[in-house]
Amino acid sequence: MTIRTEQRDSQTWDDDGGRTSLNTGDKPAADHPDDFVAVDFQIPELQGISAKNIQDHLELYRGYVQSTNHILNRMRETPKDEAHAYELSLLQRCFAYDFDGMKNHEAYFEQFAGGPGAYVNGGPFMNQVETDFGSFGSFVDCLKGMALTRGIGWVMVYSCPDTGHLTPHWVEEHHIGVLSGLRLILALDMWEHAYLSDYAVSEKKQYVEAFFHNLNWIKVEARFGK
Known about the structure:
Blueprint: E1 11-13, E2 19-21, H1 51-77, H2 85-110, H3 124-133, H4 136-147, E3 153-159, E4 166-172, E5 183-189, H5 204-214, H6 217-224
Helix pairs in contact: 1-2
């Protein structure tokens, strides 16, 4: 069985605009006051998702933070002239992948902080769920079905600031198909790295069940209310 891995995780750019691992001894970019800092998530013991899988996943997230900072620093340092236009264009095109990889994972891990939390019956979030999906069960079933989409990516739930409606959506990789102008309120990572320490690819449905079992809906409600 061939498992697709994120070969672009924890990577950066060489002087010719190509990818090279950050672990090859390359000199790291200089620190910058605007650099992003990895969040120290305090995630309790989860049911169905092992501590090993969480730690490996957090290490991958920290790689995205490092790579995002490196790209930003390279863009700051690269002369803005015709001779460097090609390198700059590659850096700028790559930025969305690494930046969204960082931010998507922050939304994902935050949902486990504090342990599972129940939604508030009759609150604004649940009222919107019932308006858009008929019931909470139908809403979750919709997300679980989307999570079993073939391929890698993210199940996202967005809230529209203009209408309040909830919009489930599949995002390819980290950045392809992101909906503009909407607020992200729930993020489910469906890259294989999110569950392979615990489940085979053919068992990813069990990972999805574990995700919802451990989800802190209080965090989701708070995002909806912003």
